[in-house]
Amino acid sequence: MRRTFLFVLVLVCIGFLFGSAQAQKKTKKLPRVCGNPDEACKGRAFFHSYELPVEWPANSMIDESEPFYAIILKSAKFDFGGTADCEKAYSDSEIHSIQTQYPQNKVFAQKCFEPGLNYYTDVDADYVFIAVYAGKTLAEANRFLKKVQEYGQFPGVRVRKMRVGVNGT
Questions:
Q1: Which helix (H) or strand (E) holds 165?
Q2: Mean pLDDT in each 10-residue stretch from start to end of the chain (169 residues)?
Q3: What pLDDT digit, counting tens, does each position of 19-29 carry?
Q4: What is the domain partition of the chain in residue ranges?
């Protein structure tokens, strides 16, 4: 009887140890979004001025960033099959002008989609837009939203949770 009890106890301990080891496996760390234009960001030079930089891992072909919050300032439906040039949907000078209003938060745009360029999740693929990085947390984003609303230039703006993606294939 005692021997059976010890045997069961040893099996339970072994099961507990293996279960703990499985639970301690590291989850994949998602690539960091560089939301402040003044902070260091590995690889920032590889991005267009209108893209939100991300610290992609080396040799990353298809990946998505950590989640973040943004405020879409302007958007427009765009006929990507038509003759209009999606690169001209929002000019670099317009994006730069908005960036000067929010120097600590990166202003970015979704223009054309080409392999290797950023795309953004949780937005309608038929739209082009200009957005501004609002933070990693909803609380941070809501505080920043109040600043954007106080400025008054972009009525009806809301916080949106998204990720940056890349498809380099």
A1: strand 164-167
A2: 47 48 66 96 90 89 94 88 71 94 96 81 90 98 97 93 88
A3: 544 555 567 78
A4: 44-167
Instruction: Give CA–CA dist 98/27, Å, rounded.
Output: 37
Location of structure tokens 């703006």: 157
89 close to 135: Cβ distance less than 8 angstroms = no
- Lay out the sheet containing 159-162: strands in order across: 107-110, 127-135, 68-77, 159-162
**116: DSSP letter:** T
Instruction: Tell me the residue ranges of DSSP E strands in 29-150.
Output: 62-64, 68-77, 107-110, 118-120, 127-135
Residues in CB range of 77: below 8 A, 6 or more apart: 126, 127
CA dihedral 155, 156, 158, 162 (to 10 degrees): -90
pTM: 0.80
Structure tokens at 163: 């990720």
